[in-house]
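Name: Aspartate carbamoyltransferase
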Amino acid sequence: MLKGRNLIDPMDFSLKELEEVFQLADSIIENPQQYSEVAKGKILATLFYEPSTRTRLSFEAAMLRLGGQVLGFSDANSSSVSKGESVADTIRTISCYADVAAMRHPKEGSAMVASIYSTIPVINAGDGGHQHPTQTLTDLLTIRRTKGDFTNNVIAICGDLKFGRTVHSLVKALSRYKNNKFLLVSPNELRIPDYIKKEVLEKNNIEFVELEKLEDAMQEADILYMTRVQKERFFNEDDYVRLKDRYILNKEMMDLAKKDMIVLHPLPRVNEISYEVDNDERAIYFQQAKYGMYVRMALMAKLMGVCE
Ligand code: NCD
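Structure predicted for Aspartate carbamoyltransferase:
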């Protein structure tokens, strides 16, 4: 039962519960009209302490398309946070006004803290460099709808594996399915954190290799997940400038890949995928953004208990 629950970490839902969310998303995609009023009278609060375009607007579009309404802030400076209010107090107040809350915060663990004090479901929309479980729902729904299921794939993940929270959440989520292999492509400085390697990959006996060259992953990959270098998490501008253009996926590289490989990206893109790749039918990152809205519709409908 997902009614009243929070989504803070990708492992919060069982595989069966995830499947229920995906089935509802499929049903919404097939027949959006049938769901256009299920959340009538419900309110989503978006509490965004860190910049966002896609995630916030996708949550808001999702709620509006369910027939509900939205309120919130997209800049911590315009809220009482600038007066020194704690996350705990903000969420206790928001709980009085809304039925579900989506929170993005630069500090790891913030959504978890909010969920302790909240009386409404809290959805983690990104906590620092930690986790981003609704991007993972987006990624999983996209994989499910193109590849059929989550098993037997070679998944290449390229870019900033150290700070990229979408990467951490995706690896965690996919570690629960059988027979996948990861090709982790990053500069030495931006390798995936040790805790993911030890507690997720090694613990579950999942095959993985760490590579520095994207070319070395292109032929084997069934799924290529590109990410940008996370500028805002760097302490030193020079390091960012040195690393930011290390990987650029272009047409020549796409020529090395399987015909049915898919390219995903959580977006925003900076330089890591050249525009010429957008016309390749394997590049499905904008379709992925659309699936993100549908899966958030399904998620919120479940947490609010307005859909079976
Ligand atoms: C991601 C994020 O915020 O972590 N964006 C998103 O939600 N689609 C990825 C990123 O910012 O690079």
